[in-house]
Write a structure and sequence with these properties.
mainly alpha, 12 helices, single chain, 62% helix
């Protein structure tokens, strides 16, 4: 925590609000892949301090855009507080951008506090504090500017956890068969990256999944997979097993959908299902690593 870092996070928050939450997050994905290339080249340095620090998803790389959208919708300047694609610069409202800056600084501060919680052990964070900060920031924004409450209410005549396609997070990625297929595929692939490249492979998995979302901007029905890719790569690196990575991927796909139906489907602002899933599953998988679970439950592959 430094004054310079806090000011940079404020500036990053303004930028993240200006371009929109999802575009800013896609930029983070590309920056992470660049960082992996630098890392694997042996060039040294701490490039990750930028895409996971003053411009991380918890700052201007996503959370600031989410908060700015919630504020803009509350002021009647945006159709929906769940709109994470629209760039706020086009609204011609400096106050919306300044909200992004404030939440950029807030995210920087919250993550700093969460990082003070003791880890499970060397290299085993107690959770993904960046992802958890994204969740906390979004909850704050909803409680301030949303009208739906934390979870919202079910549509008339429907069960809370069976929303209509119009209310679903990613409707074409919500059925059990789809979740199993994409969870397994991404889990196996990213576990391989984790096994092969270790920590760099974990970052690469996240970067690929985050950057791939740029195709959503062109109307392509892309899967949202960073909440699958990152934890599955962690499992691959920790267990040395690609099969455990595939299993982890399936679990993460379902956890992400659970959080979508809990916090997003009936809400009027965005609370990010992938961030919820990453924070939860990083905690679970790192705890299992700390107690020697993977060593006790070895698989042949």
């Amino acid at each position: 925590m430094t004054v310079i870092g806090l000011l940079a996070a404020f500036g990053g928050g303004i930028f993240g609000a200006a371009v929109g939450a999802l575009p800013a997050f896609e930029i983070v994905g590309f920056l992470v892949m660049i960082g992996v290339a630098i890392d694997l080249s042996g060039a040294g340095g701490d490039f990750y301090a930028f895409p996971f620090g003053v411009f991380g998803p918890h700052v201007g790389g996503f959370a600031a855009g989410v908060a700015a959208a919630a504020y803009a919708a509350c002021r009647g300047k945006l159709d929906s507080g769940r709109d994470i694609v629209a760039g706020m610069m086009g609204l011609n409202r400096p106050d919306v951008l300044l909200v992004g800056g404030i939440f950029g600084g807030l995210g920087y501060f919250i993550q700093w506090g969460l990082a003070l919680v003791p880890n499970f052990g060397p290299g085993l964070a107690w959770t993904d504090t960046v992802a958890l900060t994204v969740v906390i920031s979004a909850i704050i924004a909803r409680l301030i500017w949303g009208k739906s409450g934390l979870c919202g209410k079910a549509e008339p005549g429907r069960n809370f956890y069976t929303p209509s396609d119009a209310r679903k997070w990613v409707a074409y990625e919500s059925d059990a068969g789809q979740l199993i297929a994409i969870g397994l595929g991404v889990g196996l692939f990213t576990a391989y990256l984790g096994i092969t490249f270790g920590g760099a492979g974990v970052f690469l998995s996240f970067g690929i999944a985050a950057a791939s979302l740029v195709f959503l901007n062109f109307g392509i029905m892309m899967p949202v997979t960073h909440h699958i890719a990152l934890p599955a790569a962690i499992v691959g690196a920790s267990s040395g097993s690609i099969v455990w990575g595939g299993i982890a991927g399936i679990l993460c796909a379902f956890v992400g959908e659970f959080y979508a139906r809990t916090f997003l489907s009936h809400g009027d602002t965005h609370i990010d299902p992938p961030a919820c899933a990453i924070a939860t599953m990083t905690l679970v998988f790192n705890y299992l690593t700390s107690i020697g679970f993977w060593a006790d439950m070895q698989l042949p592959f």
